[in-house]
Amino acid sequence: MRCFIALPALVAVVAAQAESFNFAATTTGNPATSAVDRIEPSATESTGPVDTARACAQISQAIDRSRLDFPSVEAELALACLQDVPINTEAASITINSIKQMVQFQSTLIYLKNPPEGYSNEPVDIIAGLDDIDKKVNNGEYKNEYDFENAIAELLVKAHDGHLGFDGMAYGGAFRWRRSRQASLISASVDGKELPKIWALDDYNSTGVSSYTPSAVTKINGEDAVQFLQKEALLNAYHDPDTRFNALFYMQPAESWGYFTNPRFYPGPSTSLTFENGTTFTYVNLAVVLQRDAWGGIEDGDTFYRTYIVPSTSSKIKKRSSPHSLPRQLQHPKEAELARRYVPFNYPKPAIEHQSFDVGLAGYFIDTSVGTIGVLMIQTFNTDDNNDAVEFQNVIQTYISEAKSRNVAKTVIDVRTNGGGKILLGYDAYLQFFPSQEPQLMSRYRGHQAIELIGEKISTLELTNQDAELYTSPFNYHAYLDKDLKPYDSWTDMYGPAKFNDDSFTNLLRYNLSDPLTTSSDRFSIGVTMTGYLERSNFTEDPFKAEDIIILSDGICASTCSLFTELMVQQSKVKTLAIGGRPETGPMQPVGGTKGSLVLQAEYLTALSVYIVQNFANSRSEARDWAEFLPNGFAINAADATVNFQDNIRKGLENDGMPTQFLNDSASCRVWYTPENYFNVTSVWEKVALVAFGKDGGMDEDACVSGSVTSPQQQQGEGDGNPTTSGTASSSSAKPTGTSGAAAGGARPQGSWTAALVCGVVVMASMTFGASLI
């Protein structure tokens, strides 16, 4: 995942200009994440019988009585309050139009409508779906604001892309749905060989009850448990069915009870679990109040609307704590009772760890039956500032040095529950393991009328102090090199457009990792020089053999994590081991999250559009014409609104043009969780080591789930059962290639360097966009 470090500066630049047009970037309030991410609603406020007309007032009174920072109420009462919030049909219709303008920037828009044969999800026509919602708005079919916003969320989640979303405040800004922690579940095989069953987490988390025999969950709300869970899994943003299933359960690495306990959509008033032994338990579902201070003036649906929904008044709603937060679709709520500084709860003491809160990066050395192995836990690539990014690089470097000094040759890289982060940290992590390689990632973005206008105008800017943030935007051709690492000569040269799947795209794009402004600049980048480049050009020898590394994934690997895995697996041929998934045999994908390479916020797109109109429109008439297709602000407040702006295109499959999002890259092998694995991470790593290195130093295929051992072709998104398209070249004739990079340092492509005088300082720049992204 990447978003702009430069975004706050750009928004500030255009804020005053926005008032000149009815084209302003609206305020988008986001629930604070630092505290909200760690919620355990231990007490539920009693509110009495549900009366829809009084529901919001009852909640407000209950909050006033509570001393909790995040009080909770019964889910049924919260729903009644939300369904009392009136809908403003004009504002709703304007918002739908603005969302349609935003999703034109979704790189996979046409592929979602017309996916390749073999893709594991149903087609979804986002534009037609939004038109249908708009029609229902104007026909009066939505009786309240919540149902309207919920319909948008239900449509966009069908894209199964964690970079795409619109969370209105009624849908996702006031409450977080919550099932009882006592209903938290795991999916586990009792012996690691039998098919997994569903279990209540607490049945295996009890101590001192040696005589108790856990009983599997057979039904949820009267329906077969597995069938219920597979339906519920469709309501999360992962594209792989096994990953969606895993995301429902307790995740020790993420310190989260999972999406079953923390559902994105209303879970009903209660949840019942029926067990094999015939017992049934029923639990009341809850709604956690995310911002108690906002409720001081709420007494009914109308005052809720004025507080949360109207953009002009909802600015008092708290912003999220960091502008670099992952999109909400890629977040997993952390639990207060599990949260621990640095490394997850109940993990062993690491040999090396990142010292910043919420940067899950640590190295371990453990003794196993196949000898001492190293484990590098990478649960995120996200950091809040450049100092943390530098430390991120140092932790990995120290881990590798320590492994070499201990003569530890085998490494497990655990990327479970990794939602992404700063792309350059993904690049550097790869380069620390393979500094001899030239990273072969390529991207592109979708062409349309708004892109053409923005790109043409932004590409006329020079690198000056005033326009630097705009100059480094992805719409400026200076931001990229071409697929052969040569600079583009103009916007037209970069834009093309290239045609695939009856849609238009830019030519292929790559980053100049030799450019200091792309990597080590504190203003435009993350302050980290890439390993193998410039002053780190002395790193030339790969510290480990590819066959001595295994990547462990539960499929919950997205965005930058997917790019890191793409480089490790597709370019350097590292093997992967998937764990968990649906209770059926066969292979599983190690990357089930979005494989997009750039996320853009709606706020950024709107601010950029305001700038274009203000600075390039020659008349109000022209400005009005442009406003028809440039992104406009929403007429309602949003907790989060983002699009996947760039695809990742695999080296060797360029002519086919298919985004990696639609390739089924199977893991080398798959194993089941056992109950112990959910509580003892060392047992997971020992299992992985035994499977990955337990047969003459290599993979013990007999220890894999039946039918899960895959061929190199299946691991590269090819072979039987994988998607195919009718691109300009057949995917079967194009094979991914591993390329050995030139010697580090001076032999790396340098691009075309230009000098610009900025506030008396000479800044060398050929491409600055990649530096400002996460």
Automatic annotation (TrEMBL):
Organism of origin: Amniculicola lignicola CBS 123094
Secretion signal span: 1-18
Polar residues: compositionally biased ranges: 707-717
Region annotated Disordered, chain positions: 703-749
Domain CPAF-like PDZ: 180-291
GO BP, one annotated term: proteolysis
Designated name of the protein: Uncharacterized protein
Transmembrane segments: 753-773
GO function term, MF aspect, one: serine-type peptidase activity
The organism's place on the tree of life at top rank: Eukaryota
Taxonomy of the source species: Eukaryota, Fungi, Dikarya, Ascomycota, Pezizomycotina
Keywords per UniProt: Membrane, Signal, Transmembrane, Transmembrane helix
Low complexity composition bias: residue spans: 724-747
Matches recorded under PANTHER family: PEPTIDASE S41 FAMILY PROTEIN, RHODANESE DOMAIN-CONTAINING PROTEIN
Boundaries of every Tail specific protease domain copy: 373-568
